[in-house]
């Protein structure tokens, strides 16, 4: 890569976000400070040097120059960034000549500095590589020159940071610490290939997940991953502890499975796959204006137009449809709120249309949007009481997995300082969870038993009930 990065716009275009020193000192230095003399500390995308040069604060003054000479190498594609790093090294007491010998301008994605592998200490790579998604490169004519990076053996990877990872893999780097987009852990199609290829060779030993902004010029959600090379290629389940930071701090154990391309947060998917009933309720989404026009009649319905929002709320409209369509609309009483509103009472889940909006249905008069409230049409149609039962079952299980996984199976909508991070529930996930509701397979006695468990609020007992009903598999921690 060639060129200069000066303005905020250019920083975003080129995907280079410079790491605050505080991030290094708080989350990285404590993990490495007892092994500083054991490695060659390298950053191939060094920027101003904030992920390596602060190591010098830990070195006695009389040893700084020798340590810098023997244990540090920095590279960056941008000459002005290299110059800043050189000047920062000089501030630490490093002679300018030596600083320029060990801090170099280099395109390390296209031209990996293999000579560092011949040094007397093994490489420990600490870096915040550029984030530049292939899709964005393709859309921006100014970035066409970067398409060549994704050709040949790099075909199929989706981001520059992924090329940085795979370059280190190809050069057998034993240990790395990467600050990268959290889609590395939680993304699906954008990250499946890099996780599958990379985590066959490396273990994640620890992670710090940021659900808050840490870079000045981007809100990209990031994770610090600590990687350690395996002794041989192995596709196996990985387990590691991570600290998640948003308005609070919490830690949890992550389990990454090869069958899910090592994607984090798959407990919900496991549950839906294992517990899907043999005769599931089928569901369709959206009440479209075209459907109303095809069913004109004399039965009056009142609907909310989700495409017309005013300062007073969604616009209410009245239509007359035939009796059959009128019955269909009024008998399907539920809608899915796919998006958290920002308060605990407005979390994603199933709700009753009449109770929330006071109308019979939710109309899509223009284009459907996944973040609108969406009416559900169930097949076969359930009674009013059974739909309420479905709603309460759905919300109980959904909330259980949100607590279990910190909502990581859902898509983050917006990070903020609120008590919890707003999330989006996909319509496929809605279908999958509804497909675990066994109402069509229950006897009256077992239906009564499940209702008792649901309304007791004990999700684990509900899951045990489902497990006993469905012997096709075992869910995490649920015993027979």
Molecular structure report:
The protein is of the alpha/beta class. It has 2 domains: 8-265, 3-Layer(aba) Sandwich (Rossmann fold); 275-469, no CATH class. Helix content is 33%, strand content 23%. It has 17 helices and 19 strands. Strands 3-2-1-4-5-7-6-8-9 form a 9-stranded mixed sheet, with helices on both faces. The radius of gyration is 27 Å and the shape is elongated.
> Which residue ranges are poorly predicted, with pLDDT under 50 across at least 5 consecutive positions?
1-17, 472-480
Specify the structural class.
Answer: alpha/beta
The largest β sheet comes out as: 9 strands, mixed
Strand order of the largest sheet: 3-2-1-4-5-7-6-8-9
CATH topology of the largest domain: Rossmann fold
As a whole number of angstroms, the C-alpha radius of gyration is 27 Å
Features:
19 strands, 17 helices, 9-stranded mixed sheet, alpha/beta, disordered C terminus, 33% helix, 480 residues, 23% strand, Rossmann fold, elongated, disordered N terminus, 2 domains, 4-stranded antiparallel sheet
What is the element layout, followed by pairings?
Blueprint: H1 8-14, H2 21-32, E1 40-43, H3 64-71, E2 72-76, H4 79-91, H5 96-102, E3 103-105, E4 123-127, H6 134-139, H7 160-170, E5 175-181, H8 183-186, H9 192-198, E6 202-210, E7 222-229, E8 238-245, E9 249-256, H10 267-275, E10 282-285, E11 287-288, H11 289-293, E12 296-310, E13 313-321, H12 323-331, E14 334-337, E15 349-352, H13 353-357, E16 361-364, E17 374-379, H14 384-405, E18 411-414, E19 422-424, H15 427-434, H16 444-456, H17 459-469
Parallel strand pairs: 1-2, 1-4, 2-3, 4-5, 6-8, 11-16, 12-16
Antiparallel strand pairs: 5-7, 6-7, 8-9, 10-17, 12-13, 14-15, 14-17, 18-19
């Amino acid at each position: 890569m060639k060129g200069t990065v000066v303005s905020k716009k250019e920083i975003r275009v080129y995907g280079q976000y410079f790491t605050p020193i505080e991030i290094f000192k708080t989350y990285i230095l404590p993990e490495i400070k007892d092994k500083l003399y054991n490695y060659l500390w390298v950053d191939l995308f060094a920027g101003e040097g904030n992920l390596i040069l602060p190591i010098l604060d830990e070195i006695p003054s009389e040893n700084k120059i020798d340590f810098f000479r023997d244990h540090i190498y920095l590279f960056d594609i941008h000459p002005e960034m290299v110059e800043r790093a050189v000047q920062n090294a000089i501030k630490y007491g490093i002679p300018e000549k030596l600083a320029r010998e060990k801090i170099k301008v280099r395109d390390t994605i296209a031209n990996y500095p293999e000579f560092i592998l011949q040094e007397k200490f093994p490489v420990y790579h600490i870096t915040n590589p550029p984030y530049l998604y292939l899709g964005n490169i393709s859309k921006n004519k100014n970035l066409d020159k970067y398409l060549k990076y994704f050709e040949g053996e790099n075909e199929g990877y989706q981001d520059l940071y992924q090329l940085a990872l795979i370059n280190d893999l190809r050069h057998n780097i034993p240990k790395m610490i990467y600050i990268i987009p959290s889609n590395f852990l939680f993304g699906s199609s954008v990250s499946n290939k890099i996780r599958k290829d990379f985590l066959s060779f490396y273990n994640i030993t620890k992670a710090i997940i940021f659900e808050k902004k840490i870079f000045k010029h981007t809100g990209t959600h990031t994770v610090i991953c600590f990687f350690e090379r395996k002794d041989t290629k192995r596709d196996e389940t990985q387990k590691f502890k991570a600290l998640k930071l948003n308005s609070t701090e919490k830690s949890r154990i992550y389990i990454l499975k090869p069958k899910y391309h090592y994607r984090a947060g798959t407990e919900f998917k496991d549950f839906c796959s294992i517990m899907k009933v043999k005769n599931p309720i089928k569901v369709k989404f959206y009440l479209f204006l075209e459907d109303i026009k095809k069913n004109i009649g004399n039965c009056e319905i009142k609907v909310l137009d989700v495409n017309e929002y005013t300062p007073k709320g969604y616009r209410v409209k009245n239509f007359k449809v035939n009796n059959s369509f009128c019955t269909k609309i009024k008998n399907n009483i539920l809608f899915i709120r796919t998006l958290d509103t920002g308060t605990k009472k407005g979390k994603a889940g199933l709700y009753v249309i009449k109770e929330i909006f006071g109308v019979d249905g939710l109309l899509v008069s223009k284009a459907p949007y996944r973040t609108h409230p969406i009416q559900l049409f169930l097949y076969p149609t359930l009674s009013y009481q059974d739909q309420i039962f479905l709603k309460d079952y759905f919300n109980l299980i959904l909330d259980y997995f949100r607590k279990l996984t910190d909502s990581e199976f859902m898509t983050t909508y917006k990070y903020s300082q609120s008590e919890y991070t707003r999330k989006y529930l996909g319509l496929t996930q809605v279908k999958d969870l509804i497909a675990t509701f066994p109402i069509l397979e229950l006897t009256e006695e077992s239906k009564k038993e499940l209702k008792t468990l649901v309304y007791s609020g004990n999700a684990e007992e509900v899951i045990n009930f489902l497990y006993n009903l469905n012997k096709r598999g075992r869910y995490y921690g649920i015993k027979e």
